[in-house]
Specification:
Layout (H helix, E strand, L loop, with lengths): L1 H14 L7 E7 L2 E9 L11 H15 L15 E2 L2 E2 L8 H20 L3 H19 L23 E3 L6 E3 L16 H17 L3 H8 L8
Antiparallel strand pairs: 1-2, 3-4, 5-6
Length: 224
């Protein structure tokens, strides 16, 4: 887990050295093999929210400057990262649809382990993978269309981006190179219900999946 944090912070720091603490070390305590550590530069931060314009500018710069620099143009990351205690499968993929679907399936497996089976969620999940994901993502890589991977911080929220007390610059930390948010299916029932409602909305909106898109745009493609 600490290695994934170190490598994620290291690459983020390379693109935003003034806004991401430089990682220094990670490892395991000699006398406590089950305890691990991560060290980085220290910043004195306030507990305020960063200025929106500054914050968005930093994130946009990271996205733009890292775009197209993934090995072989693939999606993924060279080491395993974690979403809390859940390890992410960051295996390289040529397709964004493939990578996204695999990552989402991983999260849904953990969801079932945590909350148990749910018939409604299972029905929605099947429709999400059969219809929604192909309808929304496959057209982005169909024909002459393509997506350039870029570096993404997956856990941006007020808890891990704070203003520097001296410069007021936004400081981003606790990154994870994955493309899902930890609150996808949080423990609070109301948020879980909201997520399922959104899944239902998408399933209803795209009942014909990619086939509907192809027919609508008169595309002749192999969708198998």
């Amino acid at each position: 887990m600490m290695r994934g944090t170190f490598e994620s912070e290291k690459i983020l720091h390379s693109f935003a050295p003034h806004n991401v603490p430089q990682p220094l070390a990670w490892g395991t305590y000699k006398d406590e093999p089950d305890s691990h550590f991560y060290m980085c530069d220290f910043f004195d931060l306030t507990d305020d929210l960063p200025a929106i314009s500054k914050f968005c500018a930093v994130v946009a710069r990271i996205h733009l400057d890292s775009m197209g620099k993934a090995p072989n143009g693939q999606f993924g990351f060279p080491v395993t990262t974690h979403l809390a205690y859940v390890d992410n499968d960051n295996s390289w993929s040529d397709s964004w649809e493939e990578w996204y679907a695999r990552a989402l399936k991983r999260m849904l497996v953990e969801e079932e382990k945590s909350h148990g089976p749910d018939d409604e969620l299972k029905t929605l999940t099947n429709a999400i993978f059969d219809n929604v994901i192909p309808r929304l993502l496959r057209p982005l890589e169909t024909g002459r269309r393509h997506i350039k991977p870029c570096l993404v911080h997956s856990d941006l929220w007020p808890g891990n981006v704070k203003p520097d007390a001296e410069t007021d610059e936004p400081i981003i930390f606790d990154s994870r190179y994955d493309l899902l948010h930890s609150a996808l299916f949080p423990n609070e029932p109301k948020f879980r219900r909201a997520a399922m409602d959104e899944m239902q909305r998408l399933v209803s909106k795209y009942p014909e999946g990619y086939d509907g898109f192809a027919e609508q745009d008169s595309l002749i493609v192999d969708v198998d």
